[in-house]
Amino acid sequence: MHYAYLDRPTIMVVDSIPTNLNILNQILKKSYRVKMASCGNKALELAITAPPDLILLDTALPDIDSLEICRRLKAHPTTVKIPIILMVPEPLSLEYEQQGFAVGAVDYLHKPLSFPTTLARVKTHLQIKNWQDFLQDQSAWMQQEVQRRVQQVLQLQTATIQVIIDLAEFRDEETSNHIRRTQEYVRCLGHWLVQNNRYETELDTMAVEQMAQAAPLHD
User: Could you tell me the domains of the chain?
Assistant: First the structure.
């Protein structure tokens, strides 16, 4: 049971009214781990030191404006991806709603809260976050895999060209020396172009090395 609890997503509830905190804790704790903060400063401290999976943020805090809290959380690398749902009194002005979305809030809950709606919104945004995290992990893996395959191809190319040089050397030492000189000429010219910002959009160190490796094929 202890391990199952640790596997649950963590929800941080930020509200200055203890009764509201207790009610939300009772509702959420059946499915989630719950952290509570009664002011903006405490919420920022908790979120940065131990980031939750989602934040329910009241808009009537005594110390820091909720929109400012959103700005700070979205500006910090540790908390930038945490979904924030603002809890607002009805009616909500269109201007405030737009401001909330502009600073990073993902949704709104109207007070007095509907508990089924609250649970549904929390579940939905946690699922969205999970998919975003999954896609990001997949993208990072794909980039690493592409780099690994590119390195394999380059190593194979280098080995193949080295065989060509060795065969040329076996046949004629002068031809072999010519091939090696050509490689160095191409390499030096390429590095000079890179250092002097010539063709900077087309050339980089890897491209120069590839051209140098391929130079023996010019004949």
Answer: 2-130 (3.40.50.2300), 148-218 (no CATH)
